[in-house]
Amino acid sequence: MSNNATVHIQPRGEKAMQVASARVAFLNGELQLFEVNTLDGMTWEGPLEADELGRMLESSYLVLLEDGRKYRVAAQEFTDRWYTKRLPS
Predict the structure, then answer these.
(1) Three-state secondary structure of the chain
(2) Nearest-CA neighbor of 5 among 75, 46, 59?
(3) Per-residue model confidence as pLDDT tens digits over 65-86
(4) Nearest one of 39, 1, 37, 22 to 73, comparing CA atoms
(5) In this predicted structure, what is the pLDDT of residue 25?
(6) Bridging pattern class, strands 61-65 and 70-75
(7) Which residues pair with 37 in a beta bridge?
(8) How far apart are CA 30 and CA 37, in angstroms?
(9) How far is CA 73 from each of CA 12, 22, 41, 68, rounded to the nearest angstrom?
(10) 3-state helix, strand, coil in the chain (%, to 5)
């Protein structure tokens, strides 16, 4: 089962801004993105792993699901390791 979601980046000290819409599914507990459509017209069918989208955006980002769940995807400092954390709704 997949959920509709929006993808937002939040530059430090600024308000979060939407950069894409996507469908999100969880495979073995890992967040995957499908049908990613950016506001400038780019489209990726997916599946994309959460870290792949972060590398493309060159930024950590928020995923807001239609059902109210929120996830933050970010890289650990000074590494190429990414993590996904569910945020309180």
Answers:
(1) CCEEEEEEECCCCCCCEEEEEEEEEEECCEEEEEEEEECCCCEECCCEEHHHHHHHHCCCEEEEECCCCEEEEEECCCCCCEEEEEECC
(2) 46
(3) 999 999 999 988 777 789 999 9
(4) 22
(5) 95
(6) antiparallel
(7) 21, 43
(8) 20
(9) 15, 15, 22, 16
(10) 10, 55, 35
Name the pairing type of β-strands 30-38 and 48-49: antiparallel
Kindly give the pairing relationship between strand 48-49 and strand 17-27.
unpaired
For residues 49 and 34, give the distance between their C-alpha atoms in angstroms, rounded to a whole number.
9
- What are the pLDDT digits (tens) for 9-21? 988 788 889 999 9
Token pair recorded at residue 79:
């590494």
